[in-house]
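U., I forgot to send this yesterday:
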Amino acid sequence: MPNDFVGAPVASGLRVLSVAELLRSVRDTLERRFPLAWVRGELSNLSKAPSGHCYFTLKDAGAQVDCVMFRSRAALLDWEPRDGMQVEVRALPTLYEPRGRFQLTVEGMRRAGLGPLYERFLRLKERLGAEGLFDERLKREPPPFPRTVGVVTSLKAAALRDVLTTLERRNPSLAVIVYPAAVQGDGAADRIATMLARASRRAECDVLLLVRGGGSIEDLWPFNEEAVARAIRASAIPVVVGVGHETDFTIADFAADRRAPTPTAAAELVSPARSELLARIAECARCVAREMRRKLHYAAQAVDSPARRLVHPAARLRAHRELVTQLGARLAFAFSHRVHRCQAHLARLNATLVSLDPTAVLARGYSITYDSAGKVLRSAAGLREGDPITTTLASGRVASEVKKTS
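Result:
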């Protein structure tokens, strides 16, 4: 088969990727390596598709990048982006696989250069961050199953209604304590800090929610004050902050133990849903029941095993009697067989003895002669005339005297 490839050969065992596989791998690597980040630039080629998605280019003097902002995110903007505007986007770097094109998926957008307030925000964030006030090691996890939730917000705020509705829907058994504080205008920051300190001192709840709905940077400014940030960190109770929309960030968000994108999300974060708890309890009950059945089955098997080996004494005696009877029969048979064998052997020995018996020879006409000492004479040599001898016949003995030898 001819080689269609030119150049260095492919390493043995190296898998050849498809274009889609390669781009998907690059996309996954980009999204893992670069999380959501804020990027500043100038809007260009802004267009809005019939679907509601926004497409534009973000550029500066040295580079540009394609961006997409999907309808659900674009709908959250309370201002109209236009070409030429300086903006900051909170975006995820990714790769659009069908075109093989690098782009930013924009989650949020704000106008850049918001004036003195924004500069104050950046300076305070940098100073408190350098002080360690935002250190992740200081953050505490809200309790997974709180009994009482404290809410620091205005009694007139729509955020309070959202929080109470969410808590009621998810877990009606939760107790709620509201610590009223103005969340906008002069003196609001001090009032918020005072309520946080009071809630911490009273220790009436397990977790605190500091919440407010969306608004301009001026509206949200009390949550960018140093007094609020320090009150959050000084609280003995974990504080969850849910201020504004998902794209709004305040100093309080960085100081909080946990940040939620909205007041409703903050309420959801600290309130385990009653249905979920009931489902978990039911599952735990099923697990306990299964484990109990398993242990009972194991115990039954553990009892069955020795029970099968347990025999009634009468049955055991009967078995022994049967064994003794069998052994007696086998012994009798063995003894009888042994006796027969011994008898046969004895008969053979007797036949041998009979065949060797000298008296049997005498019955056929032979005789045995003894000298005077009783020794069998096998030769006439050594006898002299007048020596007495005795001859044994088949029947009787004859005493005689040597007259002559030859």
